[in-house]
Specification:
Shape: globular
Number of helices: 0
Structural class: mainly beta
Distance between the termini: 40 Å
Oligomer: single chain
Number of strands: 11
Mean pLDDT: 95
Strand content: over 45%
Largest sheet: 7 strands, mixed
């Protein structure tokens, strides 16, 4: 059974930075593409960023390009989301997801395993 656990959420002021981490259990982490999604209050869950199993291929939602960076460490079974220049509209519950595929996808149904979510609040 694969388990996905997020950490690192919290409260930050606009313009600030926050780093989310995601740990995936199991010995086959390297075969999973990983994605970060978010869901703001009263909104649908949306794609934020994804990274292929090798770590060389990344994709981002347009609104976070240049501000967010996704990375992974296959030796540690971890994927991180570094978030800079945060805006109030980035406030949401952020979810980490794992899917058994080579390249990341922006589609939620491409991912099989999901974490419980980490709250990120951007407010002054």
């Amino acid at each position: 059974q694969v388990q996905v656990v997020e950490s690192g959420g919290g409260l930050v002021q606009p313009g600030g930075s926050l780093r989310l981490s995601c740990t995936v259990s199991g010995r086959t982490f390297r075969v999973y593409a990983m994605g970060w999604f978010r869901q703001a209050p009263a909104k649908e869950r949306e794609f934020v960023a994804g990274i292929g199993w090798s770590g060389r291929e990344t994709i981002y939602q347009d609104s976070v390009k240049g501000r967010f960076t996704i990375s992974r460490d296959n030796a540690k079974n971890m994927v991180d989301l570094q978030m800079n220049s945060l805006k109030p509209e980035d406030t949401a519950v952020y979810y980490c997801a794992a899917g058994r595929m080579v390249l990341a996808s922006s589609l939620q149904n491409a991912y099989e395993y999901w974490g419980q979510g980490a709250q990120v609040t951007v407010s002054s």
